[in-house]
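Re: weekly structure request thread

Next one in the queue (204 aa):
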Amino acid sequence: LPMSTPTLLAHSADVALIAALSGAASLLPIPFVDDKIRTHLHAQMFRTLAARKGKSLDNDAVAVLLGKEKRSLLGAAGKFAILYPVKRIFRRIFGVLALNDAASEVSKTYHLGFLFMTALSDDADETHSMGEIRAAIDATLTAVDTRPVRHLFQGAVRAWSRSRTKDDSIDASHLLGRLKKYGNKHFEGAATILRDTLTQEAGS
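Done, posted below.
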């Protein structure tokens, strides 16, 4: 099925803010709390973006968009209990790794929000389930090289980290400006791949 092509890329200051907050959560020294915060922020982001299109997402739809898999909670908790302390120790010892981890989280969150907005702007949710949209987002992220864009996020995270003792606010507008100025070519390509993937799903 043909899909309409929006005249503007689906950038959003709200998604930039959620992305920045998700990255900041990665710097928290308290085990488990950062992951819970990120999950809450991502869920809030999906619900907010869907509401703008007059859509209401139930808990099951949000879980699908979050990419949660049905698995044994006991097994997942056991694996996490083993790996999490090691991960946390190394991130606290090596501050650069912690900042890079935060930048990766900002990048992941912004890509999720941007691609979800792109799907909604093309009315893909009218013909596709949330599971199909999430699958198309994952396929897009596999196909595109996000490394150049991550450098933009790394610069933004480092700038915020240096200034946070003076000002704890997160300048999402600065982040969004950097994305539009230096990252539009990347996001244009990502949006094209997402639309092509959804079109193929509709034709299959």
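Residues 1-7, 69-80 have pLDDT under 50 and may be disordered. The chain has nine helices and no strands.
Next request, please.
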